[in-house]
Prior knowledge:
This is Lipoprotein. By secondary structure, the chain is mainly beta.
Amino acid sequence: MTSLSRRAFATAATAAAAALLAGCGGHQAGNAATVRPRSASPSARPAAKTAKAAKTVQALERSVPVRLQIPAIGVDTPVMQLGLAADGTVEVPPITAHDRAGWYRNSPTPGQTGPSVILAHVTVGRYGDGVFRDLARLRQGDRITARLEDGAVPEFTVTAVRTVAKSDFPTDAVYGDVDRPELRLITCGGPRKGSGYLDNVIVFAALTSTSS
């Protein structure tokens, strides 16, 4: 991204991060609390071996993701585009029987330099489990594949998995500027409160290969 694009993304991300996936299980995004940005914690940083490998992979041109596959947890889902709602919060995928993931279109596309953000529900109300129901089961080294509109297939390797309180969402770690292609997968998790969840599950991954 250009420096202007990065600033625009960071501004939108800061305004929207508090609402990210507050809609897990059916809540409206605007109900979340404000989040104060903070720096990435050591647990969010990639392992040295994966980081070294990621630096050898050339970043891709911008192309919209159309599918996401995570073999370790049986995910194979279409990807829709998500923007900002009228109140300035991040949209979430609709609560439907045919749940799917959503890419936040103000973030880089998978394979571009920077953090590409994809989110999905852990539950979808009366329809049961969501696409990211098992996201917390991912471990360092697991593979994630995105399929892009232009035919490119970037593959990412999980570097960290974190469960954090929604009231302490790590905005900088998720949206902060990075000098290589990375991926963020986000859903709800932790203990339930009413029909919602108190935490977010965040998967951090780095680009390790591309094919077409």
